[in-house]
Amino acid sequence: MSPIGIDAISIYTPPYSLPLTELARARGIDPLKYTVGLGQETMSVMPPREDIVTMAASAALPLLNKNPELKNTISLVIFATESGVDQSKAAGTWVHNLLQLNSKARVIELKQACYSATFALQMACAFMKQTPHQCALVIASDTARYGINTPGEPTQGCGAVAFIVKQHPRLIEIEEGAGIHTEHVMDFWRPPYLDTALVDGKYSTRVYLTALQTCWDHYQEATNRQYESHARFCYHVPFCKMAEKAHERLAKESCSDNSKHALIYPKLIGNSYSASLYISLASLLENDPEDLSGQRIGFFSYGSGCVAEFFSGVVAKGYQQYMAQEWHHHLIQSRTPLSCPEYEQFFLLNSLKSTESYSTIDSAAGSFEFLGVEGHVRRYKKKQSGL
Ligand code: HMG
Fold first, then answer.
1. Cβ atoms within 10 A of the Cβ of 104, count?
2. Is 0.85 topped by the overall pTM?
3. What spacing in Å lies between the alpha carbon of 271 and ligand 1's midpoint?
4. Per-residue pLDDT tens over the stretch 366-385
5. Is the CB of 33 within 6 Å of ligand 1?
6. How far apart are alpha carbons 187 and 84 in whole angstroms?
7. How does pLDDT run across 124-140, given as a tens digit for each residue?
8. Which of 159, 235, 304, 375 has the most CB atoms at less than 10 Å from its CB?
């Protein structure tokens, strides 16, 4: 059977951030609670001219620019999100249009909190096993919103990841065998009439760790792979301290080098829900100083509600030449830091609206802009200066 997995990956996060020390000052909280207690430095803030569609298209565009042949070979687009912009139409259909993809490509949207991108990856692998000359574009794009002055506020963030799944992948081969845990729990959810999540915060952190243990036990049983046969680990990162605690649970030691490079981007972007685990993978592959060729990576994907999965992949030889470290560092480092009132203004402007038409105020964005809604129809534009 041909190896199958991730052939290329690209991440995107909007051009604004909020330093968590600034948020702590405004809320009268000791900044160490956010920077040490939660392990976060900054969080990306979505401006009014962006949404999950623009973030997704901006994440995917560099992949197509690097390899224009993809327009003809992408036969499946899976869009994973829990910040959907329509109850019926898949967000991926707008992305398909903005990127001018092939009309023969299927498009679908998936939801199960932060887990959906993992199912998208597994589904893309299953599809592409049958089709040696085609590939799937998997996109995860989300904005984490808990509300102003709530305990979840410092664990917000936003971002997107796009990756290509095909046979003979140049980055990482996804291995057979996984550990799964599904359980009906109300740790985090968002009814359709709310644009901020409802969350039982401390309970959610306990469920995350329990799900990790159950998935890991199931994964070991299914694959016979021991902790030592994994060189690195990537976790879903709602905030870095959560991933560190998860790793302590598996590693049975308090500090470990084999997960820290996976946390460099999440520490600066914040929670990007469905995109978070794969932004963490990009962070690992682009920042780990060791050559990881031929090494096994363990992945823990957690989506509240809850569905969780532990699975693994083996890094391809020469993967480094296909990464975009400079571009991703530039995206993150060139963000404009906002004051707390500026962040609050963006937050309120992005609130759920029930009006038939509105325009978004001018703000910086990536390669695509969300212009507003006209007669209930969302309007987007590719920027002239777009990559
Ligand atoms: P909180 O109650 O404000 O914080 O909310 P806390 O009192 O638990 O403090 C946090 C940590 O900071 C603690 O560390 C404190 O000791 C420490 P811990 O004891 O846990 O190790 N601390 C300090 N450290 C240094 N100096 C200080 C200081 N003060 C306190 N001065 C909570 C924290 C995470 C609950 C909240 O932010 C929240 O509700 N966040 C949203 C929920 C969440 O992220 N859950 C994670 C698991 S669920 C998940 O990952 C799924 C998700 O991504 C959604 C999806 O699947 O779609 C969320």
1. 9
2. yes
3. 12
4. 999 999 999 999 999 999 76
5. yes
6. 20
7. 999 999 999 999 999 99
8. 159
